[in-house]
Amino acid sequence: MAGMAAIPMAEFVGEVRKRCAGDIDRASMERFLSGTRIEPASLEAYLSFAPGRYLRHLVHKDPDVELLVLCWARGARAPIHGHEGELCWARVERGRLRFTSYREASRQPLRLVALGPPVEGGPGHVDGPADIHAVDNPLELGADAVSVHVYCRPYDECDLYDPAQGAVRRVRLQYDSAPPSPGS
Description:
Layout lengths: L4 E3 L1 H12 L5 H10 E3 L1 H4 L10 E8 L3 E8 L4 E6 L4 E8 L2 E11 L2 E5 L4 E3 L4 E2 L4 E5 L8 E8 L4 E6 L4 E6 L12
Parallel strand pairs: 1-2
Antiparallel strand pairs: 3-4, 4-12, 5-11, 6-10, 6-12, 7-8, 7-9, 7-11, 13-14
């Protein structure tokens, strides 16, 4: 990520909000995410890890955009999940993550098809916009990782896909940390 412009988290949020308002220009979002990094000091407030799992830290949410910092301990993985038609980008800030995209070939019986081999990405790697995918920080990559996720038109529930059980289940999304709500 050397050579990228570094901006404070508040400015990063403002730029993302502009790009998620109204008609979404995917190319503009991808250029912004590929060419801008968050100042490390302003990312620190969102960093905490739990052994073997990932933590979801809410930075900002409104009807147009949700921005999260995800902290991935070694061995952590997000199950195969859908993005409910919204646009989602993930950018690796630290460490390395593996992304695998899928499409649903059928639901009865459930059959998912990988859209290619898994893609490994290090700092500055942008994945998305994703529809159905899985993300993990395999033990062999050797270190904790941090990613920033941008969701245009956020949702509160998503589908989790379990090909081994042939099941799809709806889950309510939760945060491991969130800023205080106004007036609290």
